[in-house]
Amino acid sequence: MTIKFIVDYPALFISDKKILVIADLHLGLEHQLYLEGIIIPPQAEKFRKTISFLIKTTKAKTLLVLGDVKHKVPGISLREMKEIPKLFSYLVKKVKVICVRGNHDDNIENLLPEGIEVYSSRGFKLEEYGFFHGHAWPSKELMKCNFLFTAHIHPLIEFKDSFGYRIVEQVWVKTRINRVMVKKRYKIKNAGRLEVIILPSFNKLVGGLILNKMGENQLARPLISKNFIDLRKSKLYLLDGTFLEKLKI
Fold this sequence. Notes:
The chain is an alpha/beta fold. It has one domain (3-244): Purple Acid Phosphatase, chain A, domain 2. The protein is 19% helix and 24% strand. It contains 5 helices and 15 strands. Strands 7, 8, 9, 10, 11, 12, 13, 14 and 15 form a 9-stranded mixed β-sheet that branches. It has a 6-stranded mixed β-sheet with strand order 1-2-3-4-5-6, with helices on one face.
């Protein structure tokens, strides 16, 4: 299969393009937690080691970050100013690096070293693949893709037993966009297969949306609605590859 979830990691690999895809690093989150009285070690070094391992094991030629490289919005924290250039200066020596702008990525181009491609929040198309963050409507050209990759909602599932014990796990979401509604909104005659994969957050500390506890109004994003992407028709997978039943909201 061309598109592969990397077992036990919030990352996927597009083998025919040698692209490693991750999303939602939220570098600098530790600064916000520190201001709230929570002290955790910087995550950038851990991310460097993990991403380097994934690049090596997949033999990726390109690293694609689907938005929210940084955390503070608006503005840039001192930690982000220090850690983001350092991390990406290291990565750009290993592989080609592409970033899609997320809703936390204001002025991200000022932090990234030369040689990194930065695309707008509306995303970009690479043959049959389309990439966008998810907080804004993707561009019309992406509606011709067979496969779309997005992020932003940090999808989670809650498990609870009969004693009330509760755990929350990250999940992959595989679904489709309603092609009829896409043609109507974008005023196009033809659309691709529009199979969608929503990536879990690479930064596990950032939290996310617990899909089986949220009402439809709370889940709403530009594409996530009954008219475009109905999550009730999606397939969910844990990071270890376990397939779950379809989402019940």
